[in-house]
Structure formats: C-alpha cells, structure tokens
Design goal:
The protein folds into two domains: 62 residues, 2,3-Dihydroxybiphenyl 1,2-Dioxygenase, domain 1 (Roll); 57 residues, 2,3-Dihydroxybiphenyl 1,2-Dioxygenase, domain 1 (Roll). 25% of the residues lie in helices and 36% in strands. It contains three helices and eight strands; from the N terminus they run E-H-E-E-E-H-E-H-E-E-E. Strand 2 and strand 3 form a beta hairpin. The relative contact order is 0.19.
C-alpha cells in the first residue's frame, strides 16, 4: 500500500482561540469550517486539523485523549539557532501558550524548550546538530 499524505487531527474546545493562537505563532491557515480550523506547518506543509472535540469523537468511534492527563503525541518544531528557539519561546508566551520548560541546552549542539497550546497539546521547539 502507498500512503500519499499524512496529517494530524487534534481535539480542541474553542476554535476561535485555537485559530488566534496558531496564527500568532506563524502557522499558515489551511481553511476552516464550523467544526475545525486547519493549519499548514513547516517547509513540507504538514497539516494539522484542530476539530471541536464534540465533532471529532463521533467520527472516530471513541474519546480523544485528554492532553491534561498525558501526552498522545508531542510535535517537534525545528529551529536553526538558539536565537530562533528563544524567539519561539517569546512568541508562544505572547500568544497565550504555556511554557512547560524554559529553553536549555541538552548537550553539545542541542537546545530547546517545551510548550502547550491553550488546550494542553504539547510541542517542543528544538535546535540540534
């Protein structure tokens, strides 16, 4: 079997808040409807659809994970320098994201931090050699 494309579907509670947050940190809008807001991320335009929780759960035949109780997935956003990681940290905080860990070195050539969006979905911003 050949897969043409992969994307992510995430559950959120407030589409306007989600749209404002991801727009503020520079994700590229990819359309919206009454049930979702969608963005393209990175050079390869990875798509993340953010569905209202009550709209996606009936379509998957079960519950979405509660990001406040654990991590279903952690997305990594690449950065080219420590300065870029630090800029991401400032922009995420300004947009209303929660900083989970402050930017720090993880060994020679590695630097990053972890944040949550307003619904608790975790991302890390990482520069590494």
């Amino acid at each position: 079997m050949k897969t043409k494309k992969i994307w992510a579907n995430m559950a959120v509670s407030d589409l306007a808040r989600t749209t404002a947050f991801y727009t503020a940190i520079g994700f590229k809008p990819n359309g919206s409807s009454q049930d979702l807001t969608s963005f393209r991320v990175g050079d390869d335009d990875f798509i993340i659809h953010f569905f209202l929780k009550n709209a996606i759960e009936p379509n998957i035949g079960g519950k979405m994970a509660d990001p406040g109780q654990g991590n279903e997935v952690v997305f990594t956003l690449s950065a080219d320098s420590e300065a870029e990681v630090n800029t991401w940290r400032q922009e995420v905080a300004k947009a209303g994201g929660a900083i989970i860990t402050e930017p720090e070195a993880f060994g020679p050539g590695y630097y990053g931090f972890v944040f949550c969006d307003p619904d608790g979905h975790k991302f890390n911003v990482f520069m590494g050699g």
